[in-house]
Amino acid sequence: MANSTNVALLRGINVGGKNRLPMKELTAMFVNAGCSDVRTYIQSGNVLYGAAQTPGEDVSPLISAAILNRFGYQIPVLTRSAEEFKNIVRANPFMQVGAEADKLHVVFLEELPTGDQVESLDQDRSPGDEFAVMGREIYLHCPNGFANTKLTNTYFDSKLSTRSTTRNWRTVQKLFELASDASEGT
């Protein structure tokens, strides 16, 4: 059976000394869940892995359960394929208009929001900041810095009835590069 490269994005681990999770143990959890070619990127919960292409197969619940059992943390685990990452990088509307890369972020959503949910988002919530919802991603442009925005995971989760995690644009690009390299090797 062929393998495909995927990226798992965990929310809220190893941030500010909170929810410590050693990457070696996280890697082992993915291997125990049947994944191959597992590797992590930086300490904040980015995992690249190969998984058998079985319809409906999702390691997210297995990894979330393993983290809860081992560490007692309820951590959302969101996954995207290498192909989805390629589309995410290509679709960034703020890069297309020349925004500074260090002011860009992507919010990854667990569920696809409805049109009504997207309409409920307040474009003026964080003056100066912009966002664009495209599928299961929200592209952010935060010219005053991400630490100052009111466009947070908590806000999007509550308005869209889902769970999310955010990555800066440099990390998104690096994960795309690593996933692409891994996909070419399979």
Reconstruct the topology from this structure.
Blueprint: E1 3-10, H1 23-32, E2 36-40, E3 46-52, H2 60-71, E4 77-81, H3 82-91, H4 93-96, E5 104-109, H5 115-119, E6 130-134, E7 137-141, H6 153-160, E8 164-168, H7 169-185
Antiparallel strand pairs: 1-3, 1-4, 2-3, 5-7, 5-8, 6-7
Q: Top keywords for this entry?
A:
globular, 8 strands, four-stranded antiparallel β-sheet, 25% strand, alpha+beta
Helix content: 25-40%
Main pleated-sheet profile: 4 strands, antiparallel
Strand order of the largest sheet: 2-3-1-4
SSE order: EHEEHEHHEHEEHEH
Instruction: Tell me the β content.
Output: 15-25%
Indicate the mean pLDDT.
Answer: 91
Helices, by number, come to 7
Pick out the low-confidence regions.
none
What is the alpha-carbon Rg in Å?
A: 16 Å
Q: How would you classify the helix and strand content by structural class?
A: alpha+beta
In total, how many beta strands?
8
Distance between the termini: 12 Å
Outline: globular
Description:
The strands form 2 sheets. The protein has a 4-stranded antiparallel beta sheet, sandwiched between helices. The chain is globular. It is built from 7 helices and 8 strands, in the order βαββαβααβαββαβα. α3 (about 80-90) packs across α7 (about 170-185). The protein has helices at about 25-30, 60-70, 80-90, 95, 115-120, 155-160, 170-185; strands at about 5-10, 35-40, 45-50, 75-80, 105-110, 130-135, 135-140, 165-170. The chain has about 190 residues and is α+β, with helices and mostly antiparallel strands. The termini are close together.
